[in-house]
Here is the input.
Amino acid sequence: MTTRTTPVTSPEAAGGEHRARRMWRALEPLHAVTYFAPEARATGESLGLRGFWRGYFGQRAAPLGPVPAEVVTALFYNFAPGFVARSVPEVWSVATPAQLLDARLAAVDAALRRALGDVGSAEVAEAAELARAAAAAASTAGRALAAANAALPWPDAPHLVLWQAQTILREQRGDGHVAALVAAGIDPVEALVVFAGAQDLAGDWLRERRGWTVEEWEAARARLADRGLVEPGAGETVADTVLTEAGRRLCAEVEARTDALADEAWRALGDARAERLVALAGPLVERVLAAGDFLERNPMGMRPLVSAGSG
Here is the structure.
């Protein structure tokens, strides 16, 4: 098995992928085990959290403390309010935020040990040091999820330091993405409609995983059509959303703003060290992807930076 990576491209490079986006793709699978690895669900169920979503909302929101559903809905942004309310605040009566934080760290530890094998290697330690330096340079002003995770104590083990650094970085990126959507006047369900069209994702599949009804989805699509962002009556199902040129342009602007807002950490780290982190993370991510199919289809629209092949 071989690992293929593409060098990090500075945001100023013409035609290249933005540095912040490439770093997200390079590292995000190391965070995604938090929710999609089987260890995560098993650990949640051991605390009495039935089903995937109670574990997801509980473990992701735990750094915030026992906040109400309205806060989780606001910060996570693209979930239907009623969908969140099915898990929050009930989850806090089943397990405290402190218990959930311990549980998610234990689950990540188990998942990464299973996937990576040698978590004590020099490569893991070096990657952890670089990622932690980037996370320390990421501003959390106005970014609640990033700030909540940055306030947590750092674990000792390098593979968990690497995971926590990427958790801070990805929540910082996500907070910035929400800001970009708000600035663009795209509400939570509209954001999903546009995302489904841009990523060629099945609308029904995405809608169901965020808790919106067909009626809410179609109303959002109608609003977007009125603004000239999606084709009106593009299909009979929610899977048929087609972006107009204006819609594709707005989507690109939101993504560009998201990248720009997330670039501070990588600017501070510098291209040379960012490229080194990509090179170190590539084999680790490849092992995570090879350890199971839990990232084959995910609602993040993530395309990992590395790909696996025989050789």
In short: The chain has two domains: 26-182+263-294, 184-256. Confidence is low (pLDDT under 50) at residues 1-8, 307-311.
